[in-house]
Write a structure and sequence with these properties.
The chain has a single domain, classed as SPOUT methyltransferase, trefoil knot domain (Alpha/beta knot, 3-Layer(aba) Sandwich). It is built from five helices and five strands; from the N terminus they run βαβαβαβαβα. It has a five-stranded parallel beta sheet with strand order 2-1-4-3-5. Helix 1 links the parallel strand 1 and strand 2. Helix 1 runs parallel beside helix 5 and helix 3 crosses helix 5. The longest helix is centred in the last third of the chain and has 20 residues. The protein is globular.
Length: about 160
Amino acid sequence: MMRLHICAVGRLRPGPERSLVDDYLARFDRTGRQFGLSFSRLIEVEDKKGGGKEAEALLLIKALPEPCRVVALDERGRHLSSPDFAQELAAERDSGCGDLAFVIGGADGLGADLLARADMTLSFGAMVWPHMLARVMLSEQLYRASSILAGSPYHRA
């Protein structure tokens, strides 16, 4: 069973974004378990000292489960279709990866140390998205990937 983690800067407050993240991750966990994928936890960090993205990167690195593979969400990352993303998850699982962590930076992005630590960088397109919405988009894509692997009609492509 490959456990997925989301490590992100900032606290997601109760509201529509939080509801969507919780809903999609619960759906992912239900659908993904039959395919060896489970959601483990959402880890939120905050740099209360105002050290910028490098300080946030250090907090994220410390929060990562060890050992784990790391996927950094970054605007300069790879652009994948949803089916390709599903196949990437399946390939990680099939390679014996026990823990896969997705990292989402704060408003200024991810620090260089964290980008260097990443095994893969992933982009949601050329547009820049608020980091809180990136959590919703990632959660939905995780659910979509598990649906694709399950052959469910959720993904209509």
